[in-house]
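quick one before i forget lol
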Amino acid sequence: MTSPGYDQARVERRRREHERQAVVFGVLIAFLAVCGIFALAVYSGAISSPFNRPFTTVGVAEQETYPAACLPEVKGQPDGALPTAYSDVQVRLLNASTESGLASAHESVLADRGFSIVAKGNVPVQLQESEIRFGRKGIVQAYTLAAQFPEIRLVLDDRVDRKVDLLIGEEFEAPLDVEEVEVASDKPLLNVEGCVPAAEIEPEKRIEPSATDDEVQPAK
């Protein structure tokens, strides 16, 4: 015959088990509910998933970090090089993205400001970020063009003329509004932070365009 004390202990044990099960199932249901709400928020775009990692667009080249060339010292200008007149900056607009029409869109802005757009076209690479590519003779021109953008990569290459190439990448930034551009004919340009004298940089090989419109001006 089972003693009353044993029966009471069994009842208490079952009660505690039921309580633990209720707690476990309650926590599990709450966790699943939170996961469901979080998934719905991510799906709807209300929040970004912390598990996402940035994916490179298929075919987009990984961009290296290049040393930026310092502005040259100019005799008679002890405070630094002055910007080049916009009309003397010859620019090739080259689409380095999968989106069409970007060269023309940039042309409408830069040409209105007086830049000399000598060619438009495409390059056989795709870049994430836009770049300005230039040779040793075109450093001041490149800096003058770079001042039109909030931030842009400067890449010294092996060209021998003063023309500069604006390679427009997938994640391009539009030019600044005119009133935000800090360029004045009597105000020296400022070197990019951490720049390196051009003579100490091994130039990159110029990225030749796969196709361009005919150039309308000869190189200076």
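fyi Strands lie at 60-61, 90-95, 116-122, 126-127, 131-134, 153-156, 164-168, 211-212.
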